[in-house]
Amino acid sequence: MPDVGSPQPPTPAAAKESGARPLPVVAVWVRDLLVSLAISAFIIIFLYQPVKVEGTSMMPGLEDQERIFVNKFVYRWEPIQRGDIVVFRYPRDTSKSYIKRVIGVAGDRIRIENGQVYVNGKALDEDYVPSDYADARSCGEVVVPPHSYFVLGDHRTMSNDSRDFGAVNERYIYGKAVFGYWPMEKLGRLR
What we know:
Blueprint: H1 12-18, H2 25-47, E1 48-52, E2 67-71, E3 85-89, E4 97-104, E5 109-113, E6 116-119, E7 122-123, E8 139-143, E9 148-152, H3 162-165, E10 168-169, E11 173-182, E12 188-189
Antiparallel strand pairs: 1-2, 2-11, 3-4, 3-11, 4-9, 5-6, 5-8, 6-7, 9-10, 11-12
């Protein structure tokens, strides 16, 4: 005996008798396409932004014209950390965006001697900077101000970074570079 309180879905024959017609296949495809586009737009607008790397300051990890995704939401849930690759508005001209690696966070003491970076007195092991990309520049000790980050490019001889324009205030940082998608041989998570 069927439960009186729960309606049963109509059978195809019953739907035909009542005049209800199933959606044509094309309408289903259009509906699914519109839903997919809406979800994609939401993700791109609010969560992930595709970005084209311009310049060589992050080589060899990121090359000129490489395409990556930037997570624009992650720093609402977790703090910016040393080693993160961040995208930010250039402090001297906010119409430009830069991409660099975070070396120091607020309160850190950063010093560079003949290209070797020291964070709070300890030499930083930077396996992402091959010897061909290192330089011998020195920089006196800097204490990273509150709500700011000391950033450097991985290609030290070709990078305009915190050695030149100082620490970057967190209000200029708008995302974390997380995934490379073009060219296909570079497909994968960024480190």
